[in-house]
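During the second year of the project, the team shifted from modelling isolated chains to modelling whole assemblies. The rationale, set out in the original proposal, was that interfaces cannot be judged from single-chain predictions alone. As a representative example for this report, we include one of the complexes processed in the last quarter. Its constituent sequences, exactly as entered into the pipeline, are reproduced here:
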Amino acid sequence: MTIALEREVLPRNLSVPGLVDAVSSLSDLLVGRRAAGDRVGFVPTMGALHDGHLALISRAKSESDFVVVSVFVNPTQFNSREDFDKYPRSIEQDAQGATVAGADVVFVPPIANMYPPGGLTQVSLPDLSGVLEGSSRPGHFDGVALVVTKLFSIVGPCTAFFGEKDFQQLQIVRRLVSDLFLPVHVVGCETVREESGLAMSSRNQRLSREHLRAAPVLYRALLRARELIEGGESNFDRVEAEMTLIISSEPLADLDYARVVDCETLTRPDHLADQVRVLVAANFGGIRLIDNLGARVGGSDMKGRS
Amino acid sequence: MTIALEREVLPRNLSVPGLVDAVSSLSDLLVGRRAAGDRVGFVPTMGALHDGHLALISRAKSESDFVVVSVFVNPTQFNSREDFDKYPRSIEQDAQGATVAGADVVFVPPIANMYPPGGLTQVSLPDLSGVLEGSSRPGHFDGVALVVTKLFSIVGPCTAFFGEKDFQQLQIVRRLVSDLFLPVHVVGCETVREESGLAMSSRNQRLSREHLRAAPVLYRALLRARELIEGGESNFDRVEAEMTLIISSEPLADLDYARVVDCETLTRPDHLADQVRVLVAANFGGIRLIDNLGARVGGSDMKGRS
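Output from the structure prediction step:
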């Protein structure tokens, strides 16, 4: 999305303790911590923190000496001004929650700092970015790749924690880090769910009560797909059709895709795959939800032996 | 260019002292040097070192504690396999020359290390990459941006020294570093010339004797353009036409472009520009040469006063 980058949507209150907004302040702070021997953990977020984010921060705290949480609603990864404007924002509550969960500093850069005028550089991974979420959200992952590259440069050598809920994003970040030799160790963390099975997401708070009741159908479809695959079903068309049937049986769900893919390439798995990923996306009253699960291909234990 | 990345063109002799070929070895070495307080200087090259490169290395030595010179003929920035294969290679001589000039380590990564299979990430600056050299060499600067991003990640925080001879490349690298917040300070160094005025270039060694005698026409055209601009000529079409006339009067020169541009945007300067850049490119017997000069816009000292 081309956006009026100079416009901040939020009134900014930087009197909250633990907040850092200047890029150079954060870099300087982290150079000092690393020089003192600290291992830096990093959790990039767009704010509106929920228990999924807090689990990432706790994990980062348990595996690092100094934890940075960034809160930045990145304009370049939105497909419309409206979606960007509507994205929930709660910076003071986020800062407090992040700190309780273990953040040592919360980085809240202004848009004009992250995207100063005259910026021309683009970072992209066309092969991974055009499929699944990318085909419904053109340019989304280019925005993700660009902002993640910037944030990783600013933070420097670190271990970065991402949720598996955004599985395609996680794979893109892994590939980006590997391709560009970024000094970052990427850790994918299991999706945190509501009791209903619904994957936690900042978008859930925009669901009506009835859509919230309908949305766990996604998880049920994924569980069924996993059961089929781990039970030996090797016809992935059939698995996808079964997920489609389950999700379509929910009248409030408007299915976008239900797919079985290779974990790395995000395309149809070849016959040698031991592990696959099952991904779904659907709209509930105009709110787009995504979810996914890993599945071990049935009988894969036997493979090397035959 | 899509290239058979697994194929090394050179027989590799890594018994030369001071050479490092593994990415991780270089990174580890530099982490140690920085921890010991050293400022790292970096001179990325494609080898075939001439006095221009050696001046960059000396400059790096004078401004840093530990100097890395990379020698990597980057396949992704070539427009044809033939041009890539023909690019001069002299790794042992380069290593020796670089060391004498001040390199503490010469980094010679194999292609398969810099471009492991499965690489998908692209880095590009479309606005700066499509003009001038980019319009004759599609994809060239995408390859440059990608390899420079990789090399900067591997080397880490440093001061990097680039020749002004490749002015468009220098501006692209500056923009890339700024846009992505890379922890690199970029220094542009004045072009080193033969006595004839011909800018030093690894390609010069491929010129026939008569083309070598003809090539300094480029510098004469640039000098004349600078004289005109600094003398007050504000009609840049006229300046470009004069350069074209001069270069076209040399029968062995096949002109590509002669342009006056803004130093940052590389497009036609606006009326407020104090400084402009004059750039030329021409083929001499199939060998492409480029050159450029800065020029202060005549009367620009007076500007703020009127």
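The longest strand of chain A covers residues 253-262. Chain A has a mean pLDDT of 92.
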